[in-house]
Structures are given as structure tokens and as C-alpha cells.
Amino acid sequence: MKKQEMIEVPPQTPVTALDRVNNGLSLVQRALAKMEGDPKCSTVIWSILCDAEIQLRAAQDKLAPEMAVDVHMLAFADKRGVVRKVVIDKQDLTLVEQGVNAEALGPILSEVFRLGQNDFQPQDCPSVSVGDVIQLADRYFMVAPIDFKEITKEQFDGLTPPTSWSELIR
């Protein structure tokens, strides 16, 4: 009797809900591209596909593991309005939504500061520096020489670049 050889099958990568949403969105976008300008295209089908695209984009936003945090670049700017987008893990932001104090948010703010360096996420603007303001939801945190200082919306609105952290960290 011959000995049978066992064939090792590599494990398959699990398909996540986000993968399925991304695949569905890709299919809808390809269908829309093919139908665009086609006189035979039904307006009903077109509108269903457009609605599907909107729904899939909303699901994609909810399932995406990352999100961008706004950092207002005030330390070395000559005017307001320069905002750096720093991409972080979305799970980190659950604490912000729970309204925890600034001290508990320290690790998240430190991660935004770290990832806001051009070494990690290169952008066409300076790295995050002391005096810049990190916005998490409707809360504002100025980068201080050591740690972060939560400031009010009114304090944030009153800042004029280039900012001096010493104005607020007294």
C-alpha cells in the first residue's frame, strides 16, 4: 500500500467586513463608470447604484480602522488655517468620545505628536511642534514642552500664529 502525501494548504486571510464593503464599493463604481453616458442606462438603475455608493462609503467610514486628526499648525505659521492631518488608529479615539480627562488622553496625544513628525507621515508642512494645537473632536490640546495642555475653544480662537505656548501654560 502506497503512503499518501499530505499537501499543506496555506491558511487563508480572513475576509473582514471592511474588505467586503471595499469590494462592493469597487463593483458599484465600475458599474457606474460603464453606464455613464450610455443612453440605454435606466435612471432607476443609475439612482440605485448611486444610493448604493453613498451607503457603502458611509459603511467604509464606520469600519475604517484609521482616521485623521487635525493638528492646527500655529507654532511656526504666519497665518491661521494651516492644518496637518495625522492618521491614527480609530480605536484610540474611543476615550475622547467618553470625555475622559486630558491626563488619560496623554498616550493618544503623544501618538498624534509622534505620527505628526515628517519621519513617520511625510507631508508638505512642518512636523508637529510645541505651540501647535491638536484637535480631538471638539477638544483642543496645545503641545507643551513637556506633555499637553487642554485649552478651551475660546482660548484656541484667540491664538495668533506664531503661538507661544508660554502664554497659556502658566
Protein described:
This protein is α+β, with helices and mostly antiparallel strands and 170 residues long. The protein folds into two domains: 17-63; 66-167, no CATH class. The chain is 35% helix and 16% strand. The protein contains five helices and five strands. The protein has helices spanning 17-35, 43-63, 94-97, 106-115, 153-157; strands at residues 66-72, 83-89, 133-136, 139-143, 148-151. The protein has a five-stranded antiparallel sheet. Strand 4 and strand 5 form a beta hairpin. Helix 1 (17-35) runs antiparallel to helix 2. The longest helix has 21 residues, at 43-63. It is extended. The model has no long low-confidence stretch (mean pLDDT 79).
Task: Output the helix-strand order.
Answer: HHEEHHEEEH
Low-confidence stretches: none
- Assess the beta-strand content as a share of residues: 15-25%
Q: Share of helix among residues? A: 25-40%
Main-sheet strand order equals 2-1-3-4-5
- Main β-sheet: number of strands, strand sense, barrel status? 5 strands, antiparallel
Structural class: alpha+beta
Distance between the termini: 86 Å
Radius of gyration: 24 Å
Number of helices: 5
Mean pLDDT: 79
Total strands: the figure is 5
Shape: extended
Q: Indicate how many domains the architecture comprises.
A: 2
Summarize the structure.
The protein is an alpha+beta fold and 170 residues long. It has helices at residues 17-35, 43-63, 94-97, 106-115, 153-157; strands spanning 66-72, 83-89, 133-136, 139-143, 148-151. β3 and β4 (139-143) form a beta hairpin.
Helix/strand layout:
Elements (H helix, E strand, L loop, with lengths): L16 H19 L7 H21 L2 E7 L10 E7 L4 H4 L8 H10 L17 E4 L2 E5 L4 E4 L1 H5 L13
Antiparallel strand pairs: 1-2, 1-3, 3-4, 4-5
